[in-house]
Design goal:
Length: 467
């Protein structure tokens, strides 16, 4: 673990399971409460100096991290595939994407973080860093999301304590090792551990903000814990994203984009397409196109050359996917392809497409977070919008149409943080990303995301009286 600029061992450790084999292949250190306190104290000590640095110096440190990620992509990718399950190609894509993200986020003009107004008084609005930020990351994109959080926090002058998911801590620990000599001691701290460590971070009195990506139930617990000292929170939580396919679409032209919007990273993406509403006029044809694609996909151990999709990441999530598909089948759903666990070691579940299913069935109402997509038929657009919006989630949704203007009008009626047209799950460093309803609080990315790592200070000055 990286604590206060030094690499630190722990007295105990926990196994890391390779989801392709169901067997442990490594151990990670289990941080103690004392070690967390040391990391927070180191981050607090480093904060004044880091915040006082010229922003160009902070940019240079982050860009140096981007460079070393590119240099170490092959080493990191093997570990990422072993702990997360994704293919080596996707693992390399995540690491290189993290490097690109660092370049993009550091290119944002920070002058927007301060404003000056001159009238009878001199008024300045300044954005100031908060202090120590706790960054808690999930298991689906462990390295990328760690980079998202620490880069935004650090760029505007905060220091960080990063806690990766206990399912996938290794590449984030490696990230800490790579960052050790690029940043002043204490600016970045990386600790691994289980639920206790997360609870200690969210309740720690000297941590000023929590940035969390993960499930809605955990997000609610974090918000309760953070209330003790009114920590700021950014919560990017689950989604059960709907896509609406209009009647004017050519199924053959959009099927591939729709398919990979749902099954990118084996469907283990908060903003992946998870409910597909298709107009009855194009329903059967689109289903047929999607089945053809699904049956061509190679699922297997991510280290094998031709594999496109790996296993579900962990046993709990695997069991959930099995349970939701079985429940849908019991309620009369028709499985077009897939629908049963693969007969082999590992948490392997094939790409699964389900029809003849409606709201009220768990597969439609809940977020599966795995390689399964329910396809629902509708008659008119008002019906589709009502059904898509009737959900506690509101992260991202999409509209698919040959008429862009028409699609934009429909998209504007969706209750979500991001509405895409003829695409889905496209997230950019320069655009804000976040959810409404139970899909989260606040946004990440862009200048709006950077603002969330700051507090506003108003300076209101007049000339001294000469009377």
């Amino acid at each position: 673990m990286l604590i206060g600029g030094g690499l630190v061992k722990a007295d105990s450790s926990f196994d890391i399971i390779n989801p392709a084999t169901e067997m442990p292949f490594a151990k990670a250190p289990e941080a103690t409460r004392e070690q967390l306190d040391q990391a927070v104290a180191a981050a607090a000590d480093a904060f004044p100096g880091w915040a006082a640095l010229d922003v160009e110096r902070r940019r240079d440190c982050l860009l140096s991290l981007a460079g070393i990620l590119k240099d170490k992509v092959n080493d990191l990718a093997v570990v990422l595939t072993n702990e997360q399950g994704k293919s080596l190609a996707d693992a390399k894509g995540e690491i290189l994407g993290a490097a690109q993200y660092l370049k993009a986020i550091t290119s944002i003009d920070l002058s927007m973080l301060s404003k000056r107004q001159d009238a009878n008084a001199r008024v300045e609005l300044r954005r100031k860093p908060l202090g120590v930020v706790g960054a808690i990351t999930p298991w689906n994109y462990p390295l990328l999301l760690a980079v998202w959080k620490l880069s935004q926090a650090l760029l505007v002058g905060n220091t960080v304590v990063v806690k990766p998911s206990p399912y996938t801590p290794l590449t984030t620990l490696m990230l800490g090792t790579l960052a050790k000599d690029l940043f002043p001691a204490g600016v970045i701290n990386v600790l691994s551990g289980g639920d206790d460590l997360g609870a200690w971070i969210t309740s720690h009195e000297d941590i000023r903000k929590i940035s969390f990506t993960g499930s809605c139930p955990t997000g609610k617990k974090i918000m309760q814990s953070a209330a003790a000292n009114l920590k700021r929170v950014t919560l990017e939580l689950g989604g059960n994203d709907a896509g609406i396919v209009l009647d004017d679409i050519n199924p053959a032209q959009v099927a591939n984009d729709i398919f990979w919007s749902a099954f990118v990273n084996n469907g283990q993406v908060c903003a992946a397409l998870k409910r597909l509403y298709v107009h009855e006029d194009v329903y059967e044809e689109l289903c047929s196109e999607l089945v053809t694609i699904a049956e061509s996909v190679v699922t297997g151990d991510g280290k094998n050359k031709d594999v496109q999709l790996g296993p579900v990441q962990n046993a709990m999530q695997f069991d959930r996917v099995c349970e939701l598909v079985d429940d849908a089948r019991e309620h009369g759903a028709r499985v077009l392809t897939g629908g049963e666990p693969m007969d082999r070691a590992g948490y392997f579940y094939p790409v699964t497409l389900v029809t003849d299913v409606e709201e009220g069935v768990r597969l439609v109402d809940e977020e599966p977070f795995g390689p399964v997509l329910p396809i629902l038929k509708y008659k008119d657009i008002d019906e589709a919008l009502r059904r898509a919006n009737d959900s506690p989630f509101g992260l991202g949704e999409s509209v698919w149409s040959g008429d862009t203007d028409r699609a934009i009008e429909v998209a504007s009626r969706l209750d979500c943080g991001t509405a895409w047209v003829n695409q889905h799950c496209q997230i950019w460093p320069t655009l804000p990303f976040g959810g409404v309803k139970e899909s989260g609080i606040g946004v990440e990315n862009s200048e709006y995301g950077l603002e969330e790592f700051t507090s506003m200070q108003v300076i209101n000055a007049v000339a001294a009286s000469t009377a």
